[in-house]
Amino acid sequence: MTAKNFEVVIVGAGISGCALAYTLARYTDIKSIAIIEKYEGVSTLNSKGTSNSQTIHAGDIETNYTLEKAAITKRTAKMIERYCLGHGLQNDVIYSHQKMALGVGEKEVEFLLHRYEEFHQLFPYMEVWDKEKLKELEPRVVYDEKGNERPEDIVGIGSRDQWTTVDFAKLSQSFIDEIKKEDVKFELFLNTEVKDIQRSGKRGYVLKTPKENFYADFVATDAGAHSLFLAHRMGFGLELGCLPVAGSFYMTEQKLLNGKVYMMQNPKLPFAALHGDPDVLADGNTRFGPTALILPKLERFKPGTYMDFFKTLRFDTDIVTALWKLLKESDIRNYLFTNFLYEIPVLNKYLFLRAAKKIVPGLKMNEFEYAKGFGGVRPQVLDKEKQKLMLGEASIFTGEGLIFNMTPSPGATSCLGNAERDVKYICKYLGKEFNQQHFNDELTEGEYCVLPEPVASQKAMVNLIRAEIARTQEKYMDNTIHNGPNKEFWDNPSSKLK
Ligand SMILES: Cc1cc2nc3c(=O)[nH]c(=O)nc-3n(C[C@H](O)[C@H](O)[C@H](O)COP(=O)(O)OP(=O)(O)OC[C@H]3O[C@@H](n4cnc5c(N)ncnc54)[C@H](O)[C@@H]3O)c2cc1C
User: Fold this and answer.
1) In 228-303, where do the E strands start and end?
2) CA 271 → CA 173, 263, 293, 424, distances in Å?
3) Can you tell me the distance from the alpha carbon of 81 to that of 94, in angstroms, rounded to the nearest whole number?
4) Which of 261, 274, 409, when mutated, tests ligand 1's pocket best, judged by the most ligand atoms within 8 Å of its CB?
C-alpha cells in the first residue's frame, strides 16, 4: 500500500467539500490539499442539480427567517453570487429569475406586508405585487382552471432582477477547476470511500480507504449524513443522532411559472411549505416540492446505507423522547403524516394537487407527475442531551485537527460561508495564514450587512406570527457547533505541529 500525505484532507466532494477546498487553495498559504470522494464524480448526491431546489436562499423570501438571521444569510448567499459573476458563470451555473413569497388569504397578506416594511431596508430591491400586478408577472398564481380569479386576497413580495438559482453540481466542478489554477498541490480522489479516520503517530490523522491510506495534519469531513457516521466511529458527537429527511418533487412538462414562488412558511415548520419554480436542468419546466419523508437510510437512490442509518441514529430512550416531543405537536404530526402519503402511488397525486393548488389554483392532474429520481436527503440532527430535533446545520469541532459538518437545507447556499468559518479554524490550528481581506474583497459586499431597526407591528396577529418564528428559530433553527473552539483555542491553538 502506498501512502499519500497532505496538510488538509477533505472527505466528500459535495458543494461543501469543494467550496472548502477552493477557499483553502485561494485564500490561505496551505500548500497541499486533497478531497476524497466515494462516488465517481463531484456532487452526485445532495448537491446534484436534481436533488435540491437550486435556490440561493438569501433571506428575502424565506418567511421563516427573522431579520437578524436574514442579514447573516444575505452575506453568505452573496458569496455564491459574487463567485459566479466573478468567473463569468451567468446562465451556465447561476441564473436570474423573478422570485416571490406568496401570501394567500387575509392573515398571510397582512403578515407579508408587514414583513416587507421590516425587511426592505436590508433587501432594497424587494417589491410588493398585488393581484393586478401578479396577473401580469405570474398569471398562474391568480387564475383557477376556469380562468376565473381566485377568490382569496393574495400578495407577492419579490424581485425581478436578482440571481436566484444555481446548479450546485456545476458550481462544485467550477471550484475544482479554479483550484487547479492556484499554486497548490491538489488532488481529487474519486471512487474512494473513507472507512475510518484514526489518529496517527506519523502525521496528524490517517484516513483508511479500501485502496490506500491517506495522511493529513487536518481532516475536514463534509460527507453529509456520513460526517456523523465517521465522527461516531472516532467517539465524537455521541450525543447526536441523525434523522434523514428525504425530499421528493413533482414535475410539469410546461413552464407554468415564470419564476420562483415560495409560499409562506408555517412558523413552527421552517422550510416545510411547498414551492414551485423553473428547473434550470429541465428547460425551465416547473418543479413543485420538496416533500419531507423520514427514511431509514442515509443516501437517496444509492444502494445500502440502511445499517449506516441505524448506527448513526444511535437509537435509545433520548431519541424516543425527542421524536415523541415532535409528534406531540399537531402541526408537525400532520405534516409528517401527509408527507408520508405523498410517497404512495396514485393517492400521492391527488393529495399533492390539493396542496399545490395553493400556489397554482388552476393546476390540473394531467399537468404534473411524480419526478422519479429527483430529490435528496436532508441530514437533520437530533440532540440527545436536549432531546430535540435541530433544524439548522450542525458541526462538530473536536478541539483537535478534525471538523465534521452536517449540512441540511440550505447548506448549499451557505457553502462559502461555512468554508470561511472552517478555514479560520484550520489555519489557526495549523499555524497558517488566512487572507481575510482578499476573501472579503472578492466574495463579500463589505464586512457585515447593516441590520435595520425592526419595525414594530400594530397588529396582534402579525406579532403572534413573528413571535412564533423567533421562538422556532431559537428552539430549533440556529446552526449548532458542538465543542466549538473556545477563547483559549484562538489564543493558543492546540496543534501538535507548532
Ligand atoms: C430536497 C432538498 C432540497 C434542497 N434545496 C436546497 C436549496 O434550494 N438551496 C440550498 O442551499 N440547499 C438546498 N438543499 C440542501 C443542500 O442540497 C445540501 O445542504 C447540500 O447539497 C449539502 O452539501 P454537502 O456537500 O455538505 O453534502 P453532499 O452534497 O451530500 O455531499 C457529501 C459528499 O460526501 C461523500 N461521502 C460520504 N461519505 C463518504 C465517505 N465515507 N468517503 C468519501 N466520501 C464520502 C458523498 O458521496 C457526497 O459526494 C436541499 C436539500 C434537499 C434534500
Assistant:
1) 240-247, 250-252, 260-263, 275-278, 286-289, 293-294
2) 27, 10, 13, 29
3) 8
4) 409
Chain segment 164-176, per-residue pLDDT in tens:
999 999 999 999 9
Contact 395, 482 (CB under 8 A): yes
Residue of minimum CA distance from atom 31 in ligand 1: 14
Give pLDDT tens digits for 269-285. Answer: 766 789 999 999 999 99
Who contacts 85 (Cβ-Cβ below 8 Å, separation ≥6)? 94, 163
> Residue 203: pLDDT band by 50, 70, 90 thresholds?
confident
| CA 14 to ligand 1 centroid distance, Å | 6
CATH no., domain 3-491? 3.50.50.60
pLDDT band (50, 70, 90) for residue 358:
very high
Which pTM was predicted?
0.93
- State how far the Cα of 259 lies from the Cα of 164, in Å rounded to an integer: 9
Distance, CA of 410 to CA of 58 (rounded, Å):
10
What grid cell was written down for 18?
Answer: 469543494
Question: Average model confidence (pLDDT) for the chain?
Answer: 91
Which amino acid would we find at residue 347? L
What ranges do the domains of the chain cover?
A: 3-491
Q: What is the distance in A from the centroid of ligand 1 to the CA of 245?
A: 12
Q: Which atom of ligand 1 is nearest to the CA of 249?
A: 1
